[in-house]
Design goal:
With 464 residues, this protein is mainly beta. Helices cover 5% and strands 49% of the residues. It contains 3 helices and 23 strands. The strands form 2 sheets. The chain has an 18-stranded antiparallel barrel. It has a two-stranded antiparallel ribbon with strand order 19-20. The radius of gyration is 22 Å and the shape is globular.
Length: 464
């Protein structure tokens, strides 16, 4: 990954590398990764994802540098493990974890996600092609196959600690977890990282599509894309500042600023941060957006008027033996945040909740971690989200549900990287979550939503 205002991932984060060296000649590096995810237990209420066993295989290549230029490529293959996932769940009792797959039936499917050329020297850098764009509003947590973008980026580092960049993104491809961003996290609200159902006719996952269709639906007009400008400064002691502006033609302009300070305090580090996000409509905005009634209620008028404020404070123990943090976010404005391109900078985002992007939400969170022994770390976190004014969807209950209460999420995570097996990471987590649409009653059918989860899964990753 290049260190730049708009970072670009050239292969896969976390994968090991194998140097291709023959008779002293450098032919680049290969990396590969195998990952499997399995749901162990879940509630039988039809809302908590109860069935899902999936894998992905990644293979990547990075060429040697030729006068600062490199060629990079990465491909992914994803599918169901031995046909063990139930893709015909019982209504209101079971739910398929669709966000683990690129295909509706879990069939094996692959994609060449990354094909690009990069350039970097002491003062200049650039990127052209397809890959991941690591910036606040184009990056979030992925599980098996990441989102990918077609982009051109140029940047400069004229003085030490100062970084400026300008980029244009014209296309996006939905990865596996985009289905979760839309459904289970976003709850059909358009605020979780996807504003359209990725699997719908005319779109689809693992396909590079114009940003107009990614944002507004398969029948939307093409747009020139999203222009991203960034300025970052790391010349202050222990402090980094960043400013990004995202202009999406005829839809939205989003401005994001953050400051991060890690201040030595005896053998500890004081970790402080602040963030601000602003979004306004441009041209017709989101007028004419396609989708379910909740999307129409949230963004059908075309107007975008959203602010997000955030603070975080924490302590990092000696050698990161332990950490403890508190986070806070507050949103206001006349609309929610139109989150169409996979962004997630909010401090109070958790494994399955991103409610800070909804309209008029006060949220807070606490997170702590402890290294039990070398290679074994435990993480516990709790988040509370005030009731929003954003409509959402509850499967088999209503496509236009109103919030009924505050939302919350408890995360318990155990990560083990055994020294005996280099490249192996085992991760298990338990999540207890209550949606703000829990107990919503469909007035026509009389059906009441049970939008709660008690969920345990296992993730195994081997990089080689």
């Amino acid at each position: 990954m290049l260190a730049m205002g708009l970072c670009t991932a050239v292969a896969s984060t976390g994968a090991a590398a194998y140097d291709l060296s023959i008779q002293g000649n450098d032919y680049g590096t290969l990396n590969a990764r195998l990952r499997a995810i399995s749901i162990l237990t879940a509630k039988d209420n039809g809302w908590d994802p109860s069935s899902g066993n999936a894998y992905s295989v990644m293979a990547g290549y990075k060429s040697p540098s030729w006068n600062g230029f490199r060629f990079n490529a990465a491909a992914y293959l994803n599918g169901d493990i031995f046909g063990s996932t139930d893709f015909d769940p019982t209504i209101r009792e079971e739910r398929t974890a669709r966000g683990l797959f690129l295909a509706d039936d879990g069939a094996q499917k692959g994609q060449l996600t990354n094909v690009n050329v990069t350039f970097e020297n002491e003062q200049l850098y650039g990127f052209i092609g397809r890959g991941q764009i690591a910036s606040p509003l184009t990056e979030n947590t992925y599980n098996l196959v990441p989102n990918a973008y077609t982009a051109l980026i140029v940047g400069a580092k004229p003085v030490e600690g100062f970084d400026i960049s300008l980029g244009q993104i014209t296309q996006m491809s939905f990865g596996t977890r985009a289905m979760t961003d839309w459904g289970f996290i976003g709850e059909g609200s358009g605020t979780g990282g996807a504003a359209q159902l990725p699997s719908q006719d005319g779109l689809g996952q693992a396909r590079f599509l114009n940003l107009g269709q990614i944002a507004l639906g398969p029948d939307a007009d093409d747009i020139a894309g999203m222009t991203i400008a960034s300025v970052r400064y790391a010349g202050l002691p222990h402090t980094k500042l960043g400013l990004w502006n995202y202009y999406t033609e005829d839809i939205a302009n989003s401005l994001y600023f953050d400051v991060d300070a890690k201040i030595p305090l005896n053998k500890l580090k004081l970790d402080l941060g602040a963030q601000y996000l602003r979004q306004d409509d441009v041209g017709d905005g989101t007028e004419g957006i396609q989708g379910i009634p909740a999307i129409q209620a949230n963004f059908g008028s075309g107007e975008l008027d959203y602010n997000l404020f955030g603070l975080k404070a924490g302590l990092i123990g000696p050698k990161k033996k332990w950490t403890a943090h508190l986070m806070w976010n507050q949103s206001d404005g006349d609309t929610a945040f139109f989150n169409a391109f996979g962004g997630d900078p909010a401090y109070t985002s958790s494994i399955f909740s991103r409610n800070a992007y909804r309209q008029d939400v006060s949220s807070w969170g606490a997170r702590a971690s402890y290294a039990i022994m070398p290679g074994l770390r435990f993480v516990a976190a709790y988040f509370d989200y005030g009731q929003s004014e954003t409509r959402g969807a509850v499967p088999n209950v209503s496509p236009n549900a109103a919030p009924t209460s505050d939302a919350s999420e408890l995360d318990l995570v155990l990560v083990w990287k055994p020294k005996q097996v280099k490249g192996l990471t085992l991760k298990t987590f338990y999540v207890n979550r209550t949606s703000e649409y829990d107990e919503f009653v469909n007035q026509r059918s009389g059906i009441k939503a049970d939008a709660t989860m008690s969920h345990w899964r296992l993730i195994a990753t081997y990089s080689f």
